[in-house]
Amino acid sequence: MKRKIPLIITFTVGVLLIIAEFIPHKPFGTLSGELEEWFLVISGFAIILGQLSLLKVNTFKIKYKQKDWQYSIITLASFFFMVGFGLLWGTGKSSGIFGHGEVISAVIGIKPFDYLFQNVYQHLQATMFSLLAFFIASAAYRAFIGRNLESNLLLIAAVLVMLGNTTVGGLLTSWLPESLNFLHLPKVSEFIMTYPTTAGQRAIMIGAGLGIIGSSLRIILGIERSYLGGE
Amino acid sequence: MAKRKQIDRRWIFLLIFLGVALPLIIKVGLPVEITKNVQMVYELVENTPKGSTVLISFDYDPASMPELHPMGLSLLRHCFQRDIKVVFTAMWPMGVQMAEDIVTTLKPDFPKKKYGVDYINLGFKAGGMVTIQSIGKDLKKIFPEDMYGSPITEFPIMQDVNNYNNIAFVFSLSAGAPGIKEWVQIVSDKYNRPTSGGCTGVSAPAILPYVNEQKQLTGLLAGLKAAAEYENLVGKIGSATSGMDAQSIAHLIIISFITIGNINYWRKKNKQKKDRKK
User: Fold this and answer.
1) Which of residues 114-173 of B touch A (CB under 8 A)?
2) Residues B3 and B119 placed together within one structural domain of the fold
3) SS3 of B270, please?
């Protein structure tokens, strides 16, 4: 019974939504609209679930002094600081429990939450992403080696696209006559992105789409039950 | 095979650091060529009648700011220049702050633009694709209040906006999912409304298939280069154009290292061949 009820719910909702896609009239249209609203409510709870999970995992790490437990203290402190500041004095134009925190805002210029967001969080995230540039450069030097035909093709395509995506690329071939305009580096880069890359991407997307249909049918028909836990 | 002699990665890091930092300090100002996809986005805004309402979704967070923020700034500037009303939403929680930051930056240039009349921020809503689909049925049901908690029916901008039929076009600034793909699949494919977007350079190959004859996407701003092109089209040079110099130098450094790596490899290979013949 514990497994049968969720399977029946999944089957009923799945079939109902498929029918609603083809017959968007009453009662299917109304029911699918109602189910969409339920989904939005559940999505909201997913955020709370994520926060609780973060608290549980990090508290557990600190409690049992697991590897790198010290970082969990920083995670939890940051979490409580941000949530606390947001709740107490609000963000942007929204007020918090203690109003807009005019006294603190007068000292730091903006609300504490916004101050931390703009001066700490934004820069930390940008830094993490920027580090990629260094690793990509190092990885490209080691990985882009023309060992055989395939790797040579990849290497040439990568260099052409990279050059085409720079302002220098355009300058390098700007001297070409109009009749050879198709060899202009930004045009070559655009060609590679529009035709070979897009063709490959479409093949992947169609394959993934068929895969999603297959998995969805397996879930709706109760063949795939791993989402219920176990098996 | 004998192990290739590798350049110490710290040299690569140092050169990349200098290559990115120096052009940001000393402006080079290399010319930017306008590509077809960017021109399409520009024309989409240009051809939108004055007084129309458009929806811009901020589906990114600070990690993608250097690429997507300049796009948002230029796009909003373009919309304001053409007296187009803008409704902001966010499918990513941090997107709300991104939209707020852009409005704050543009406020001194457009002091007459009023919140609730010329633009409104509806805030973040969880649910991704389902939220996008539900907006098509009844926007006011999905966003009964703006991000500050005021009922949206109070604002003049929202009086005639009920679903995608009242929106001239939808634009998603996207760094992943939910993002452009979800907006295209619902707004363009299901509701047949013009849809466009801006994405990071790294995700461009996955989005480009939607720019096609069927116009699932009307143009695409892909990466920093597209942001710089749009800045040039709008006529207000910003961080994307100066960032392009840094990106160009960084790309050239990477290409140089790839060339050195290949020369080393082929030299080793030839040496091995000669040794075997001996």
Assistant:
1) 125-128, 130-131, 133-134, 137, 141-142, 147-149
2) no
3) helix
* Contacting residues of B for A138, CB less than 8 Å apart: 9, 12-13
Residue B252 at interface with chain A, using a CB cutoff of 8 Å = yes
pLDDT at B1: 46
- Together in a domain, B4 and B60: no
B267 shares a domain with B131: no
Q: Is the pLDDT of residue B71 over 70?
A: yes
The predicted pLDDT at position B2 comes to 47
**pLDDT of amino acid A101:** 87
Structure tokens at B56: 């811009």
Any chain A CB within 8 A of the CB of B255?
yes
Same domain, B233 and B254: no
User: What is the full DSSP assignment across B89-144?
Assistant: EESSTTHHHHHHHHHHHHGGG-TT--BTTTEEEEEE-TTTHHHHHHHHH-HHHH-S
> Tell me, what's the ipTM?
0.81
Which residue reads 């500041």 in tokens?
A85
Do B195 and B65 sit in the same domain of this protein? yes
Q: What is the pTM of this model?
A: 0.88
Query: In total, how many domains does chain B have?
Result: 2
Residues of chain A with pLDDT under 50: none
Range of the domain at B262: 1-30+238-278
